Protein 1
Amino acid sequence: MRTLCYSLILILALSACASHPYAVSQRTYRKEVRSLSKTIKSQSKQSFADSSGNPIPSEWVSTVNFNLRKPNYVIIHHTAQQSVEQTLKTFSTNKSQVSAHYLVGKDGKIYQLLNDYLRAWHGGVSRWGNITDINSVSIGIEIDNNGLDPFTEAQIEGLLALLAQLKKTYNIPVANFIAHADIAPSRKVDPQVLFPWRKLAERGFGLMPDTLISESAPLDFNPIQALRVIGYDTKDLPAAIRAFKRHFLGKEADAEWTTEDVDTLYNLYCKY
């Protein structure tokens, strides 16, 4: 408990010392952290009852072995807005009900919006494998991009530096750097088809199929099952197929499989 309190106090101190033009949102941030701190420090004993409604004895006994939860995934988004300033304004208002941990500007500048150990609201209704609450296990990174333009070189270099720091700090597995569209294929397309996933994969952030596919998929290969193994929710199968093609083939395409598509999927599936 003491470790958690010290960590939250440090968060408050860093927030108070930071020079930031969004004074109102900074005050709100500190208020919310204080509220979370009170929740963590409260030690109210839970009450339990059996199937007949009879109370079951219970007691609070504090363990000394614990720490903060750590993120295990990184979800990459594009902002779908026209500027960093517009996105910062969106994330600084209660009405929007959306947030992320980081924002990377076109000039490569990195804006930290939330402590890594806190839960941002960036994934929405989503799923990856058996995980249905992505926000609780991930860090959300927004890239300043309207969804149409190429990403700048400075922006990608800034992102790579950020990803390197996150991977080192939290020991995030290579395969766990994924797209917003991967976890919510029926709703989202970000970070759009021009995002350089292969460049990230070359640095250890995400998996990609080989550039030259030397082995064809076996005749009994099941592409739907392969998508599920990778992590896709296939309830909306056409959307999952399009998300796969956007991320791993780098193209906006229909939901029909070509022989090349299936061979590429098989190559990627073998890496999981």
Protein 2
Amino acid sequence: MSRIGKQPVKVPKDVKISISSNVVNIEGPKGKLNQVFHPDMSIELNQQDMQVFVKRRSEDKYHKALHGLTRALIANMVLGVTKGYSRNLEIVGLGYNAKVQGSQLLLSLGYTHPVRLEVPKGIKVDVTNPTNPGRLTVSGPDKQVVGQFSAVIRGMKPPEPYKGMGIKYEGEVIRRKAGKAFTSGAA
């Protein structure tokens, strides 16, 4: 049996959850999430203990993998609507900066024009320090959307190995390379 899949997901009191066949709707203080799961997984809610149980049809390798995945996704949804997820990014480079205008994120990354990114619905972007080193925080209830949008932002100008300029995750270590070495003396 899957070690992760057999564990129940505890639902806090301030979270409303509804399950109909393979669709799970969760609503909490940070927002609403819904997800359609594989029809081979049965998802049950114990109203007395406020716990969600995930069960599988067979002992196939595929169903064992789906069992743990389904339970983990439901646990992520519950955590997202209660506490939320956030990802911090740093912008390093002379003249590089970021600002939020309405529902768009404007990044000046040394290109001839500013890069405009549409912020996904339900996601909040905070620019705490717009200039070098710039800091932004991407936050929201959906772990997948927060991670994906952070990766899109980082992909606009990944950090380069010589000076470390670009966009990186907070705490990310960039392996640096030595530049060209000047040698003296004629051969």
Protein 3
Amino acid sequence: MIHNTKIAVRNFLFVLMAAGLFVAGCKDDDITVEENITKVEVQITGGGIDKKFAWEDADGDGGNAPTIETITLLPNVAYSAHIHVYDGATEINDEIEGESNDHLFTFTVTGANLTVSELNTDANGAPFGLESRWTSAASSTGTVNIKLYHEPTDKSNASNPGGDVDFDVTFPVQIQ
């Protein structure tokens, strides 16, 4: 019995030591923390409006459907837009901005007379999109799809930049 216990302890210590060497060998860049993006807000400023419109899925994928506010804009106005991203109650914009070279926000407008342009840039001068210009035209309804790409391979190709999608949300839009 003592012999079996010594073997078990020796095996346990060997596994523990091997695990310690594996963890010690990892660089900080090798460790990634996955965010659970539960809320995306679009803050619109201009034309007498300063409002945040929210897409929120508090219980995450697979639970209840998200709640989505309709973005309502006036016609023929240029707006400043700023995206706010949350993991639970914590805004993670600082983390995303700190890694702006590794992120890209894309915008696809369908149906609405709305143009999204002038995306702010990352440290290398490539598109980033945390901030942008939204210009409305005649009254209309439609949607704007916003995606956040992580490690895009081609930031100049907004329709297919490559990389992983951190979030993919669609807001209804009314221009009236």
Protein 4
Amino acid sequence: MAQIQASELIVNPDGSIFHLHLKPEEIADTIILVGDQNRVDVVAEFFDKVEVTKQNREFRTKTGTYNGSRITVLSTGIGTDNIDIVVNELDALANIDLDKREVKDTHRQLTFVRIGTSGALQADIPVDTPVISKIACGFDGLLNFYEGRDKISNLALENQFLDHMGYYKKLAVPYFVESDEDLYGILKPGCTEGITISAPGFYGPQGRVLRLDIKDGDINEKISNLELDGDRFTNYEMECSAIYGLSKLLGHRAVTICNIIANRKRGEYSKDYKTEIKKTIKTVLDRLTY
């Protein structure tokens, strides 16, 4: 088995992985991913006990137990570029021997549940509604760098989308990846479902105009009016597509639930989204440990 070079798999002097500063024994099989590092403590407040606390840069981690199940919560920061770091390093902790720099013979499957915030693309989705991402649409282009991209993507939806949108050819080709079916079934009750777009930015890539015009001023209207195989585009956020895509390629399970804190069609913003997302966190934890 080929050894992975030190420049490709960077291990810190204490034996932890480069960015996350975690060791293999410090992560659980079930991992809650949040964007905001302060939300790690909000999730961990529900734990019966906390056994690990680590932080490097925006990557804050706590591992503990809830209802007798071991769970890790980790902050990713904003964007799919950070997800590329987080998912690959978590997979390395699970499936690569860091001392020998070799892939392990036995695959360890991880479960990723992203709990985040997002903006609704449909007028009938009120703020503070939890939306579960049945399918992720990646505007970010991250998955296009990986072999096997087409095998785990829904190419039919991709082609329908490109035809409908008249997509600008200098943009990254969007990709569509489905959530894990079992996880989706466990967490779906009480959630609005649909297609979630992961954008590579908050302003122009999500159709916002401040002082800079955007290439397609009608992009959000065209997206809101489109259904693909009966599924609507429900919301924008910035991480889901990379989580779904990398998880599929690496043999892990993933699902995303985001509370709507802004309705883009109605111009509304949540008055108390932090209270509402605590309710979503508690529901997710209960369902994962039932």
